[in-house]
């Protein structure tokens, strides 16, 4: 039997980017009506009072390596484990990320994604993000240098959206990268420039070939210089490219976050967590691929003191972006919902409109997650 649910009294983040006092009606897992407060056009089996709260599209994380003690690269069968817990952070959809590793692990990840079974109320895995292996050995970050390089052709043949690959991060300056970017685009896969030492000119060439996004802006890439602006300068002035940013105050200084926000505006910056197995856990050790990393107040780091992902939630990233950049709460939420949906070309997620999937997050006045709805049903409540 279909349940009709109403969310009454909330400030709804509309597709226009404004917060408006509206009531929502949900049916068949999708938004059926958006009404002025108090309007009653059909019977509701359930009414939820969200007065004084913000109702927003569910958050979408385009770069997450694991959480709650598990790592996707080491164990891709753990995706369902994380999917079940992400609604507690407001995330309703995500792109599990596989870092640079031996090819057999990427194959295992594709097989696991193809057979993925999740419990009701879990976040939806939208495809895989292969972060590497075609990244710059000059900018590896915490990636294992042993496995950096161009994958074999027969493996690349399987990197299609239909097969389950959504995003591939690569360094545009490496031999064969421009051709790979074009090939990925033909296969429906988003090419993202990252872990790169490319020049601004090479970045422009990569954009012409199809690069649509930049992976964790500022991190694991050549620094900006007034005589050699590199990937950072090229990103900031390119009106059409999206850029992920890890807004934990550790990976990127708050002033640099504010600079990126002012340069790129609210439509191009994408909040990502880059969370590892440490998400949802306390201080101590965690896994990232073949690495054991340490979690402390200084973030997640390797034994060589290199940053290795984060334990950041997207909800915390939203609060940080407001604090660091001075943007509005609505703009910060859109950077974690509408913008990532646009990166992936999704038209029924990341927005609140009639017909959209009723994956929603309700924030309190402090932008903390009060409850999360998956397909119109409460999946998590504080």
Percent strand: 25-35%
Multimeric status of the protein: single chain
Mean pLDDT: 95
What is the name of the CATH superfamily of the largest domain? Metal-dependent hydrolases
Low-confidence stretches: none
| Gross CATH architecture of the largest domain | Alpha-Beta Barrel
Question: CATH class of the largest domain, anyone?
Answer: Alpha Beta
Range of helix content: 10-25%
Largest sheet features? 9 strands, parallel
SS-derived structural category = alpha/beta
Number of domains: 2
Distance between the termini: 27 Å
What's the overall geometry? globular
Helix tally equals 10
Report the count of strand segments.
22
Describe this structure in words.
- This protein is of the alpha/beta class and 382 residues long.
- It has two domains: 5-56 and 352-381, Urease, subunit C, domain 1, CATH 2.30.40; 58-343, TIM Barrel (Alpha-Beta Barrel), CATH 3.20.20.
- It contains ten helices and 22 strands.
- Strands 6, 9, 10, 11, 12, 13, 14, 15 and 16 form a nine-stranded parallel beta sheet that branches. Strands 1, 2, 3, 4, 5, 20, 21 and 22 form an eight-stranded mixed beta sheet that branches.
- Strand 11, helix 3 and strand 12 form a beta-alpha-beta unit.
- Helix 5 (200-209) packs across helix 6 (230-237).
- The radius of gyration is 20 Å and the shape is globular.
Identify the notable features of this structure and list them briefly.
10 helices; 8-stranded mixed sheet; 9-stranded parallel sheet; 2 domains; Urease, subunit C, domain 1; single chain
Draw up the topology in text.
Blueprint: E1 5-13, E2 19-27, E3 30-35, E4 46-49, E5 54-57, E6 59-64, E7 66-67, E8 70-71, H1 79-85, E9 91-99, H2 103-114, E10 124-125, E11 128-131, H3 153-156, E12 165-170, H4 177-186, E13 190-193, H5 200-209, E14 213-214, H6 230-237, E15 242-246, H7 254-264, E16 269-272, E17 284-288, E18 291-296, E19 299-301, H8 314-325, H9 329-334, H10 338-343, E20 360-363, E21 369-374, E22 377-381
Parallel strand pairs: 1-4, 1-5, 6-9, 9-10, 9-11, 11-12, 12-13, 13-14, 14-15, 15-16
Antiparallel strand pairs: 1-2, 2-3, 5-20, 7-8, 17-18, 18-19, 20-21, 21-22
Helix pairs in contact: 5-6
């Amino acid at each position: 039997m279909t349940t009709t649910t109403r969310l009454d009294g909330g400030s709804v983040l509309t597709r226009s980017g404004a917060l408006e006092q509206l009531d929502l009606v949900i049916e068949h897992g999708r938004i059926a009506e958006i009404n002025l407060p108090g309007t009653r056009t059909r019977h509701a089996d359930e009414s939820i009072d969200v007065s004084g709260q913000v109702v927003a599209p569910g958050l979408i994380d385009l770069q997450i390596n694991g959480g709650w003690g598990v790592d996707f690269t080491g164990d891709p069968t753990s995706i369902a484990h994380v999917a079940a817990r992400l609604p507690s952070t407001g995330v309703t959809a995500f792109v599990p990320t596989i870092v640079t590793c031996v090819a057999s692990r990427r194959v295992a990840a594709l097989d696991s994604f193809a057979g993925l079974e999740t419990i009701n109320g879990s976040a939806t895995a939208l495809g895989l993000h292969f972060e590497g292996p075609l990244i710059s050995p000059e900018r590896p970050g915490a990636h294992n240098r042993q496995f950096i390089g161009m994958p074999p052709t027969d493996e690349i043949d399987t990197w299609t959206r239909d097969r389950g690959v959504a995003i591939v991060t690569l360094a545009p300056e490496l031999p064969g990268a421009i051709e790979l970017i074009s090939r990925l685009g033909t296969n429906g896969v988003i090419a993202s420039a990252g872990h790169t030492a490319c020049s601004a000119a090479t970045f422009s060439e990569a954009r012409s070939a199809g690069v649509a996004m930049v992976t964790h802006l500022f991190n694991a890439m050549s620094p900006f210089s007034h005589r050699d602006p590199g990937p950072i300068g090229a990103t900031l002035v390119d009106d059409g490219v999206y850029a992920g940013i890890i807004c934990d105050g550790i990976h990127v200084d708050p002033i640099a976050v504010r600079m990126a926000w002012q340069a790129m505006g609210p439509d191009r910056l994408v909040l990502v967590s880059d969370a590892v197995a440490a998400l949802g856990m306390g201080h101590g050790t965690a896994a990232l691929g073949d690495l054991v990393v340490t979690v402390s107040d200084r973030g997640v780091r390797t034994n060589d003191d290199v940053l290795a992902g984060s334990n950041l939630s997207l909800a915390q990233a939203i609060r940080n972006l407001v604090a660091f950049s001075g943007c509005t709460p609505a703009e910060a939420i859109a950077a974690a919902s509408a913008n990532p949906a646009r990166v992936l070309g999704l038209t029924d997620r990341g927005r609140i409109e009639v017909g959209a999937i009723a994956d929603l997050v309700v924030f309190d006045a402090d932008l903390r997650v009060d409850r999360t709805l998956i397909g119109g049903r409460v999946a998590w409540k504080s």
